[in-house]
């Protein structure tokens, strides 16, 4: 992986992905005790940065291969990104999803034109189903993060951050990134390495599901003990990726971890002061910036709000938090 | 008022106001039965388009006059726009506000550096207080809509709409604008007249508070029977302005009016599909686009979401509406 791959992805995404705004509010600056800039990837197509990686991967395929279609395993933001990017390319998308996935997510993915293939988590093998479908139809599997063209697509967010932060007068800052498998974090880190010498990527995760933070601290890949039971489930993955971890290890500062309540409070504060909708997993970076000031140095911090796909019931919980 | 005044305002706003994004979602297109583009002015500084007019008016003042400061009557979005624009110019701002205004609005305005002067609605004369303060301190009154430089500032939103819609391939559409006194509507209408010959501005209001719709239909200024009791209070004004009405009469298509429930549902749909926060009065244009399809012609419609300053309790009501 090098910067030329991200730059090539940026050219393919031009005119298709949104250049999301870099927002700010004096009220957030005051809470954080330093200047806060927020990259609003919740405003990306399909409501999360995942559209970037999906578009990058699909647009990079050989046209004959691409025409047969793509397949992904996901019940979340990756599924929607793939579905929308595939539809815009005029190719079929198959999303293999647990049969107990929320109806809204199934409907949302189908609404973007994808075929949803449900499987029973207890009795069926997801990978076997995917391999069979891929073999029968010639579909290409697009992995959610540990895939070079996906990392390159997410890295385009980092290119935008460098440019937009400079426009705002910020060239030196920690760039805190909501981190699951590390696709967005490693992509942004590569972009900062090339163009933002005094910008440093740092992963943010939910407490208790901070596999990347621990992996970085301990110098090798560590797993999460559990994979569910946190409101930030969307960014909980078993462990950092084989491709993403070495990039993060080389380039990233220490990880940060926040509580569920802190993520919910950050969601309320984005509602109040930025007028954007953050999902819990998309709010952990801002939560770290606001509520972990002693773990950050410097006059400015940049955070991703990486997605906004949250159920109304969960958002209502954030609204009900103490201000 | 002519377009050169809007263009001059645009030059003064450049680098200070945000160029807010024009958003869309295939799910909204499906509900509306046509393509829907949403100008997200809730992402403007201070959470509403009012910052544009405030900046325009303050930046247009003679420097010696400006240095003495500005004064405004408002407990809402205009107050915050004036406060933020005055602070950025390094000048004092005095906001005269009813003493029973919500504490959050008082704190928000003070948080932006303005001096809040409360008055008792029952026993004190707001205009007399304002005149006294203005006389004593040499403050300039910035009216909320019936003021040429304010209209010019709001018109910059229309310039952006023309350009962004063309980028999205839309040059022919109704442009539905959330309408109180008509500053935003008339400003946008002037911009469309100059640069979007096949774009037509149309005001949207709450049912029962549709003074502009009735004024346009009946060919003269009509008043609202009441001034409170609607969830969209922020855009309820007594009647169209003396400056704004003739512009709207010359340039605008028929007005549209929506119910409180429709505004709340539109708020939920912007939450679900665009990941932005709309206040009730900021959602009426989108509500009209989604729920009044028979009053609109053409393949595309453009709506402003003009503000996002809504209390968590009210937003929770929108989230609880049937999907």
Automatic annotation (TrEMBL), chains A, B:
<dbReference type="GO" id="GO:0005524">
    <property type="term" value="F:ATP binding"/>
</dbReference>
<keyword id="KW-0456">Lyase</keyword>
<protein>
    <submittedName>
        <fullName>L-threonine ammonia-lyase</fullName>
        <ecNumber>4.3.1.19</ecNumber>
    </submittedName>
</protein>
<keyword id="KW-0460">Magnesium</keyword>
<dbReference type="InterPro" id="IPR036052">
    <property type="entry name" value="TrpB-like_PALP_sf"/>
</dbReference>
<dbReference type="GO" id="GO:0018114">
    <property type="term" value="F:threonine racemase activity"/>
</dbReference>
<dbReference type="GO" id="GO:0030170">
    <property type="term" value="F:pyridoxal phosphate binding"/>
</dbReference>
<dbReference type="GO" id="GO:0000287">
    <property type="term" value="F:magnesium ion binding"/>
</dbReference>
<dbReference type="GO" id="GO:0004794">
    <property type="term" value="F:threonine deaminase activity"/>
</dbReference>
<dbReference type="GO" id="GO:0030378">
    <property type="term" value="F:serine racemase activity"/>
</dbReference>
<dbReference type="GO" id="GO:0070179">
    <property type="term" value="P:D-serine biosynthetic process"/>
</dbReference>
<dbReference type="InterPro" id="IPR000634">
    <property type="entry name" value="Ser/Thr_deHydtase_PyrdxlP-BS"/>
</dbReference>
<dbReference type="GO" id="GO:0003941">
    <property type="term" value="F:L-serine ammonia-lyase activity"/>
</dbReference>
<dbReference type="InterPro" id="IPR001926">
    <property type="entry name" value="TrpB-like_PALP"/>
</dbReference>
<comment type="similarity">
    <text>Belongs to the serine/threonine dehydratase family.</text>
</comment>
<keyword id="KW-0663">Pyridoxal phosphate</keyword>
<feature type="domain" description="Tryptophan synthase beta chain-like PALP">
    <location>
        <begin position="15"/>
        <end position="306"/>
    </location>
</feature>
<dbReference type="Pfam" id="PF00291">
    <property type="entry name" value="PALP"/>
</dbReference>
């Amino acid at each position: 992986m090098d910067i030329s791959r991200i730059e090539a992805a940026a050219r393919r995404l031009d005119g298709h992905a949104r250049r999301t705004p870099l927002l700010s509010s004096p009220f957030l600056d005051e809470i954080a005790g330093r200047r806060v800039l927020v990259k609003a990837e919740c405003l990306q197509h399909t409501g999360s940065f995942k559209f970037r990686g999906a578009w990058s991967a699909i647009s990079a395929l050989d046209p004959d291969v691409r025409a047969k279609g793509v397949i992904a395993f996901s019940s979340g933001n990756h599924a929607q990104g793939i579905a929308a990017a595939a539809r815009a390319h005029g190719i079929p998308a198959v999303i293999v999803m647990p049969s107990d996935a929320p109806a809204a997510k199934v409907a949302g993915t189908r609404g973007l034109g994808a075929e949803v293939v449900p499987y029973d988590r207890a009795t069926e093998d997801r990978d076997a189903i995917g391999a069979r479908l891929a073999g029968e139809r010639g579909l290409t599997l697009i992995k959610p993060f540990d895939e070079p063209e996906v990392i390159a697509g997410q890295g385009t967010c980092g290119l935008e951050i460098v440019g937009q932060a400079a426009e705002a007068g910020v060239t030196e800052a920690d760039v805190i990134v909501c981190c699951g498998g590390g696709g967005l974090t490693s992509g942004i880190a590569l972009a900062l390495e090339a163009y933002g010498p005094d910008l440093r990527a740092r992963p943010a995760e939910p407490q208790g599901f901070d596999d990347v933070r621990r992996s970085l601290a301990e110098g090798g890949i560590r797993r999460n003990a559990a994979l569910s039971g946190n409101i930030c489930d969307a960014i909980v993955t078993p462990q950092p990726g084989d491709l993403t971890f070495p990039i993060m290890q080389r380039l990233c500062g220490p990880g940060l971890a926040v509580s569920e309540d802190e993520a919910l409070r950050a969601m309320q504060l984005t509602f109040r002061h930025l007028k954007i909708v953050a999902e819990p997993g998309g709010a952990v970076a801002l939560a770290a910036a606001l509520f972990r000031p002693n773990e950050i140095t410097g006059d400015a911090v940049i955070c991703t709000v990486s997605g906004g796909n949250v159920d109304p019931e969960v958002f209502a919980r954030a609204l009900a938090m103490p201000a």
